[in-house]
Structures are given as structure tokens and as C-alpha cells.
User: Fold this.
Amino acid sequence: QWHFYAALNGLVPVIPPTPATATIDHHRNFYLTTKSVITFDSSQSCPRFLNELLTPVLEPDDIFLLQRVCGLVLIGPNNLQKIVLLEGSGLTGKSIYQLILDTLVGLDSVTQLRTENLTSRFELSRYVGKRLVAGRDVPPDFLRQKGAGLLKSLTGGDWHNTERKNSNEDIPLKGDLHAIITSNAALRVKVESDGSAWERRLVIFPFKRTGGPPKRILNFDQILLKEEGPGILNWHLLGAAQALLEIEEHG
Assistant:
């Protein structure tokens, strides 16, 4: 199966084990509603993104996994049914990475995750047409809220009927959304009888800075995207292609 990423300058086929090196021109026969603000250029790399943002706070194995899990966010639904947690103290770059990923996905395809509102009447309609739901700098009890259990079905492939204000029409929503949550503390989960489901879904990345205090750079996400946007995109798409190969070979 072919997967595509809609870059600013065309469609990028993502086929295992590597993404294509050239784009396909945008055309009305491709039914796309959004495209990225990032240009695809297969020759670009992202040394500052890796050496200044990720390497100081993540183990090599975690960077390896982050590349694959978040690369898949760019090219399709959440078929692996994973919920990504970025946990660690402040000034470790979690929010900067989240902002970069938001831009790669496309801001029109991202919305805020509010577990405390998931059981309210109109909340699920906010997720129609989105690919990524993001919980940003959430408190430790974020996954213990009344509606947190719904997050499993929103990422597990279940169908939901949603309702919008001033409308009697039910709008279907398939729960194949990607979910990424950032927190300064380890989150507590209200397990009840669903411990195995949570264990299967949660992928936790511990952000821990080694060495001295970090140098804070204002708007670092925008600086990295301006300097290395195509390279950061390449890095994620390579992770996606390699993840697809691993899925084909091992399930």
C-alpha cells in the first residue's frame, strides 16, 4: 500500500524502506483538503534538530522510536493505536518538538485534547476531520479525568456518532486519531479493568536533560523549521517508511 505526504511542492510517496526522492505534482484528482507549509527536498538534513533538541534529552533508542512513531503521524491514521506521552521536567524541549510536529502535520489537522470534556455533548465533533489530538503541558491527573477512558476508543478504531450545535445531523467519526500528550510529571492513569488496553497503547518518552542548564532559545521551533524544515520532514518520512517496512515484516 502506498502512502503520501502532501508537501508544499507536491506529493511525496512514502514506500518502504525509504520515501521517494521526488514529488508528484498536486492535481485535482488527488482528493486532499490540506497541504504542508514545508517544502520537500530529499537532499536536506537536520543537524540542529537532532543535536540541539533531541540528543541532549533522549536516549538513542528513544530517538529511534520517536522517528518511527511520529513519522507515521504524517502519513495516515493511527493504525498502531498508540498514545504518545512526552514526559519530563521543564526546558527539555517537549513542547518545542510538539510545535514542530504540529506544523508538519498541518495546523488545520490538529486540535487540543481535553479529557475533562470528552463526555460532553458536542466535544467529539471538534475532532471530525482532524488527524492529531494534542494534550499540552497537562497536569498529572489528565488521564484520570471522567472522559479519559474515551481516549482508548478515539485511538483504537471505534466509530462514534458526533453532534454539532444547532444541527440534528449525526456526523460519524472514526477513532483512528493520533494522540500526543506532553507533561512535566509522570501521568497517573485510571486503569479500572482496562490495564492491558492502556499498556498496549501508551508509548512513553522520558525527556531527561544531561549536563548543565540549557540555553533557552526564543521561538526555537520556528528557527529550526526555517533553517531545517525540509530536513526535519525528511527525517520523519524516513522513520515512517522504515516503520511501514517493520509492520509489513513483523506485524
About this structure: The helical segments are 47-54, 60-73, 94-105, 150-154, 195-201, 220-250. Residues 220-250 form the longest helix (31 residues).
